[in-house]
């Protein structure tokens, strides 16, 4: 694992003055100890400890922490939360206590806290409505033209809003099989009788007949798979069960010198994100993804994020499995309307 960031940031020499300094100081102590542990031969990181390590790195490294904090404030402004700065400050106070607790417990605690300033309920309830009305329609609009046939698979449907809007855009002329590790779809989604839900497990996520589906949609799911190996196995199986199109939207990043012509309205924080190094970007993506799932989405049953890939790396993995000429890809950056600011790539594979 790359630990560039740790080498460049180290400990502060001066004693901590404010609680935030104290927090950085302590968090960095934990991160540095982890680095020592990770350098030693006998240490085998489990996905859980890697996950925790990345979150501690995100909040312990000043540049990454500045980005994730400002990103959270920006996102909560999109949610029209009153005094988003205060809410985020309170959240970071809770995270500051994480040196004595496990990160997963702190995120669960934040999930169960009703923060002041949120009108009409918790941040989770507010975001659920916002995702339904703003983010999911944006995603459905991005991909609807690409859908072919009427047997559709949506892998890892979550609350189910992407399928819901896609079905509406296509006048309910499609049958959508939605999968997930557990069913936390919203009541409105469950009412659609052109949807069927299949609960899957991580060892057998695609229990379907060869060529059964016309199109598959996979939105923000790939980075939850256990490893790059599982990832490739999953794509090979997908190749078998899907006849025509595979549409993937996932959190990816590009190097800072990547030349891209953004077609989408970008969050102003994209430039700050671009300045982070590779490891900092991975930690920032991990932080943000963990917030969207553990605090606001399905909660503790959602597997932690594991594999965030560079846009070109994901593209080359797809090229190793599918016909290169039939893969379209586009780096989207961070769309302006997002609440959890992860940069994204869209990949469409024609078969
Ligand atoms: C970030 S959420 C995205 C939810 C939904 N696709 C959306 O965009 O609103 C990721 C989802 O993938 C699910 N997931 C993770 N690994 C999976 C697997 N192997 N098979 C199916 N779903 C999986 C998680 O439980 C979670 O609901």
Strand content: 5-15%
Residue windows where pLDDT falls under 50 for at least 5 positions: 1-25, 36-43
- Tell the overall outline: globular
The CATH topology assignment of the largest domain is Rossmann fold
Largest sheet: 8 strands, mixed
What does this protein structure show overall?
This protein is of the alpha/beta class and 351 residues long. The chain has helices at residues 4-9, 19-39, 47-60, 62-78, 84-96, 103-111, 123-143, 161-169, 187-190, 228-241, 270-275, 278-296, 311-321, and strands spanning 151-155, 175-180, 195-199, 213-219, 242-253, 309-310, 327-333, 344-350. It has two domains: 4-124, no CATH class; 134-350, Vaccinia Virus protein VP39 (Rossmann fold, 3-Layer(aba) Sandwich). The protein is 47% helix and 15% strand. Residues 1-25 and 36-43 have low confidence and may be disordered. The protein binds S-adenosylmethionine.
Describe the structure using short key phrases.
351 residues; alpha/beta; Rossmann fold; 2 domains; 8-stranded mixed β-sheet; 13 helices; 47% helix; binds S-adenosylmethionine
Task: Give the helices and strands, then pairings.
Elements: H1 4-9, H2 19-39, H3 47-60, H4 62-78, H5 84-96, H6 103-111, H7 123-143, E1 151-155, H8 161-169, E2 175-180, H9 187-190, E3 195-199, E4 213-219, H10 228-241, E5 242-253, H11 270-275, H12 278-296, E6 309-310, H13 311-321, E7 327-333, E8 344-350
Parallel strand pairs: 1-2, 1-4, 2-3, 4-5, 5-6
Antiparallel strand pairs: 5-8, 7-8
The structure holds S-adenosylmethionine.
């Amino acid at each position: 694992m790359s630990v560039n960031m740790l080498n460049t940031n180290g400990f502060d020499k001066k004693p901590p003055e404010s609680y935030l300094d104290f927090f950085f100081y302590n968090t960095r102590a934990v991160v540095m100890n982890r680095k020592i542990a990770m350098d030693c031969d006998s240490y085998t990181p489990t996905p859980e400890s890697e996950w925790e390590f990345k979150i501690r790195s995100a909040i312990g490294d000043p540049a990454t922490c500045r980005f994730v904090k400002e990103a959270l404030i920006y996102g909560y402004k999109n949610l029209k939360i009153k005094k988003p700065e205060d809410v985020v400050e309170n959240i970071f106070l809770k995270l500051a206590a994480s040196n004595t607790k496990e990160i997963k417990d702190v995120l669960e605690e934040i999930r169960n806290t009703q923060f002041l300033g949120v009108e009409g309920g918790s941040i989770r309830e507010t975001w659920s409505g916002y995702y339904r009305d703003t983010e999911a329609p944006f995603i459905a609009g991005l991909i609807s033209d690409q859908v072919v046939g009427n047997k559709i698979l949506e892998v890892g449907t979550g609350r189910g809003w992407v399928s819901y809007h896609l079905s509406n855009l296509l006048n309910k002329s499609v049958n959508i099989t939605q999968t997930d590790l557990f069913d936390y779809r919203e009541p409105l989604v469950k009412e659609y009788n052109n949807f069927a839900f299949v609960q899957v497990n991580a060892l057998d996520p695609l229990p379907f007949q060869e060529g059964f589906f016309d199109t598959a949609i996979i939105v923000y799911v790939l980075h939850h798979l256990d490893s790059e190996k599982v990832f490739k196995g999953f794509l090979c199986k997908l190749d078998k069960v899907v006849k025509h199109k595979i549409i993937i939207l996932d959190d990816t990043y590009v190097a800072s010198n990547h030349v891209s012509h953004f077609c989408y309205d970008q969050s102003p924080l994209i430039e700050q994100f671009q300045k982070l190094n590779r490891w900092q970007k991975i930690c920032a993506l991990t932080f943000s993804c963990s917030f969207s799932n553990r605090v606001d989405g399905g909660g503790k049953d959602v597997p932690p994020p594991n594999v965030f890939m560079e846009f070109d790396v994901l593209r080359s993995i797809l090229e190793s499995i599918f016909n290169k000429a039939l893969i379209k890809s586009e780096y989207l950056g961070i769309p302006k309307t997002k609440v959890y600011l992860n940069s994204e790539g869209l990949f469409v594979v024609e078969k």
